[in-house]
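Structure ticket #2291
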Amino acid sequence: MIQATQTAASGLSAQQNRLDIIAANIANVNTAGYKSARADFQDALYTRMKDPVGNAEENNLLRGSGVLLGATCRDFSDGAVQETDGKLDFALSNDGFFMLEDAQGQRLYTRDGNFSLSEENGKSYLVSGEGCYVLSDQGQRITLPDAGSVGVTQDGALSCGGTKVANLGIVTFDNTQGLSAAGDSCFQETATSGNAYVAQNAVVTQGSLEKSNVDLGEEMTLMMRTQRAFTLTSRALQTADEMDGLANNVR
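Resolution: structure written out below.
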């Protein structure tokens, strides 16, 4: 009976994790550069039950231990590009991430090209919406003398008043699913993702932003399915609890 309770409880935990991920997707449906996530599950350990007939596998006498969250995967497909007419709004198409540096000096990567200027010590640094420094292809902080005359080519070459200033650092990874989420539509490199290298196919569009790739209709449908699964698992847990009570009364 204890096993039944544990199995039902694992199902509740798994469905709660899925609901949390769906809620995060819905909350970020209007967040520029956000990539939707999904929960992938896996079976917990199976144990072999006693079989008076013979072969347990042939007679399907294997008992599962529930379900576990196997991984949280990201959909890195392109979101729709929306025009903003902002001189410092850059949308990325195809493969690639902008390189950023946070206040602690850590390297971050994002698809959110909603940039602005930060005045520090008489210099104007190009920064992200969260205040992280935007880096060049050489890994250096980018300074711009005049935001009003900024231009950018499709391959990420920045210029002011027709004079080239720097190349935007746009990189990609062999395994984007291995990136670690760092909040605010940012990611960090891991051993699983591999090292960053220059993205060859990225296209930069000035005056536009890449929207979230969350499909709201799909997320709402998945939420309803998950809520039903949660309800069903709750009933299984209630049944297991009632069976435990009956067993205790018999004793």
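Closing remark: The helical segments are 2-27, 216-250.
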